[in-house]
Write a structure and sequence with these properties.
Blueprint: E1 3-7, H1 12-17, H2 19-28, E2 33-38, E3 52-56, H3 68-78, E4 82-85, H4 90-97, E5 103-106, E6 115-116, H5 129-139, H6 155-167, E7 176-179, H7 193-205, E8 210-213, H8 219-225, E9 231-232, H9 239-247, E10 251-255, H10 258-265, E11 270-274, H11 279-282, E12 291-293, H12 313-316, H13 320-331
Parallel strand pairs: 1-2, 1-4, 2-3, 4-5, 5-6, 7-8, 7-10, 8-9, 10-11, 11-12
GO molecular function, one term: ADP-heptose-lipopolysaccharide heptosyltransferase activity
Keywords: Glycosyltransferase, Transferase
Organism: Desulfatibacillum alkenivorans DSM 16219
């Protein structure tokens, strides 16, 4: 029986974005022992995974519990036959280099790997993360991922989502999910809250209620957005339960964030805002046609806070009317969006 290790351990959104590629690895080695090395924040996503055994790492500690050195020692002791490093940073390089594993597959050429995707992987290139991870799979002899997800859930997760839909009288494929937040360290990714509030009200006119999602850090933001329309779901559903809910939605609207990737893995259209970050790099799985962006000169600056003189032009130039028009253009022709009374 082969023993396989998959490494993906940074931001939650990055972990979610790699779900299709993890699935390909798991399906290939279904008869083996497959481990995932990930962040503590992401561990709950894999609680019901049928293949993965999960080990967590504290990347901010070298000697401490679950720190880098104990993790390297654990990997060496496990004697993995193959390691798929879907991360590609300094920590994962070290883990692979000292692993003693005979086969180590990475996202780009590095002495830590025995095989890798060709060429250096940079944020400035016009390649989505999903494409790069597919190249990594192919370097290891695994077919590329072509379908989103899945995120494995429990009966309790499904029941929680169903109760939420029943409580708020949400009909299958007749509501939208909205995420107006982003990492607090990346406020520049956020479309203005007044625009979100206006867009939610607009969709009410089409008979499409919006479920506005988020954690406790977005409670004030979501309270503002749902003051006149929409369902405030702040802190109500876990990420697995939100995934179940999103599968029943008609579409999603989101900033560049972990929920954006979660909605994409649910297999629905995700209309996502991109201003300071590279949409080619970061758009959700299969969602390039649904990207919402402007072509201002200062866009893709990769600055967590917009300089005052720029007035957040990359986001503010995307008006609610423009966004509504884009969504109707993509979904209206199929008859999925029809204004009330028409």
């Amino acid at each position: 029986m082969r023993r396989i290790l998959v490494i993906k351990m940074t931001a939650l959104g990055d972990v979610v974005a790699a779900l299709p590629h993890m699935e390909q690895i798991c399906r290939t080695y279904a008869g083996g022992e497959i481990w995932l090395l990930t962040s503590p924040e992401a561990k709950g996503l894999f609680r019901h995974h049928p293949f993965f055994r999960v080990q967590t790492i504290n990347r901010d500690s070298f000697f401490g519990k679950e720190g880098v050195l104990p993790t390297i020692q654990w990997v060496r002791s496990m004697g993995f036959d193959r390691i798929f490093d879907l991360q590609g940073n300094k920590v994962s390089y070290r883990i692979c280099k000292w692993s003693k594993s005979p086969e180590r597959i990475g996202t780009q050429p590095n002495p830590a790997y025995t095989k890798s995707a060709p060429g250096k992987w940079m944020r400035t290139i016009k390649q989505n993360v999903a494409q790069r991870l597919n190249m990594t799979l192919e370097a290891g002899g695994i077919p590329p991922a072509t379908q989103p997800g899945p995120l494995y859930t429990s009966a309790e997760d499904i029941q929680a989502a169903e109760r939420f839909m029943s409580l708020h009288e949400l009909e299958e494929k007749r509501f939208a999910v909205v995420h107006a937040g982003s990492s607090p360290e990346w406020l520049s990714k956020r479309w203005p809250k007044e625009n979100f509030a206006q867009l939610v009200e607009m969709f009410e006119l089409f008979g499409i209620p919006c479920v506005v999602t988020g954690s406790h850090v977005e409670q004030d933001l979501n309270r503002y957005i749902t003051e006149n329309a929409g369902v405030n779901a702040t802190g109500v559903l876990s990420l697995r339960q939100l995934y179940v809910l999103a599968r029943e939605a008609l579409f999603a609207v989101s900033n560049d964030s972990a929920p954006m990737h979660l909605f994409s893995q649910a297999g629905i259209p995700v209309f996502a805002f991109f201003g300071p970050t590279n949409y080619r790099w970061s758009h959700g799985f299969g969602q390039i046609a649904n990207v919402l962006k402007s072509d201002v000169a200062c866009g893709q600056c990769f600055k967590p806070e917009c300089p005052p003189g720029k007035k957040h032009a990359c986001m503010r130039s995307l008006t609610p009317e423009l966004v509504l028009g884009k969504i109707i253009e993509r979904l209206g022709e199929s008859g999925k969006i029809v204004k009330n009374g028409e």
